[in-house]
Amino acid sequence: MNLPPNVTTRAFERLNEIGAGDQGQALRVAVEGGGCSGFQYEIKLDAPAADDLILEGLGQKVVVDSISLPFLTGATIDFTEELIGARFVIENPNASSSCGCGTSFSM
Prior knowledge:
Blueprint: E1 6-7, H1 9-18, E2 26-33, E3 39-46, E4 53-57, E5 60-64, E6 76-82, E7 85-91, E8 97-98, E9 104-106
Parallel strand pairs: 1-6, 2-5
Antiparallel strand pairs: 2-3, 3-9, 4-5, 6-7, 8-9
Domain Core: 6-102
Protein name: Iron-sulfur cluster assembly accessory protein
Pfam family, one: Fe-S_biosyn
């Protein structure tokens, strides 16, 4: 069975802090060809589309398009704050390897 991506409370809290839902925006997580390992994540604020999977929490939305969804099965979308910066991160069990920056992966 294919599990949908999971979004952590921390990620929804960050979307709440920046007021994404108040602007009719959602966090879009997509997978595109490219990057140093073959695939790369695109993470941006965007309006939901009709064919998106919508994940909701704390009044906020994270959306994944139907083409990217198989690449993100069972993945966890989180938000992290470290000394080097703060960002949304994806822990993807489907990735066989990833680059050092964590935005590119192979399957």
